[in-house]
Design goal:
alpha/beta, five-stranded parallel beta sheet, 8 strands, binds 2'-deoxycytidine-5'-monophosphate
Length: 222
Amino acid sequence: MKKIRVAIDGPAGAGKSSVSRLTAERLGYSYIDTGAIYRALAFFMGDTAVEEHDKIRELLKNFEVSFRISDGVNHVFLNGNDITAEIRTENISRKASSISAIPFVREALFEMQRKYAETGGVVMEGRDIGTVIMPDAELKIFLTASPEKRAKRRMLELEAKGQKVDFDELVKEIKERDFRDSNRAVSPLKQADDAVLVDNSGINLEQTVDVIVKYAEERGAE
Ligand code: DC
């Protein structure tokens, strides 16, 4: 049985996490959310500012992230503690985006991510998976949707949690984050030359997963 590596990259809010988790489930593969690793580090920093590089270097010495899926939720553990809910705030989103532009942070997290890819049979999602982390993945997907569509989905998600949000503000935040992620000097978000572009503005979650599983099967996944 062939276990391929699937890299799923794309901007914030394109539905990467749900799509990747369900694709992994359908293929019987493991699922690695690399954004959660950056978020876990942002959380671990507490009050440490993004500019305090020496302190961040110190923190990285005792930084371990693991994942476990239960009840359809991908639980994220920082040094053994479940931080799944804590890393999904707007504050952590901003901080994760800022620290992800620091070269030594990317280098430190690079090795961690490469280890997850070693065995194959993995769906890994992020911003630089097809370009940097798994450049030889059998299948690379660049998943995107319009900023408005992504903001709408995020709004529904937050409203379901009882949070009131401003749609225009969300669109603005998404565009700002896209800009930061696409224009940083190290590992900017960009589609790999050999990635398949999937725009899911007009299709739902299941249909998106169907499209990706079909590509995976064409690339030999069993
Ligand atoms: O996918 P996410 O929103 O959880 O990611 C959080 C931040 O981490 C995002 O702003 C970009 C960054 N990131 C990255 O630079 N490289 C990755 N492979 C994954 C995430």
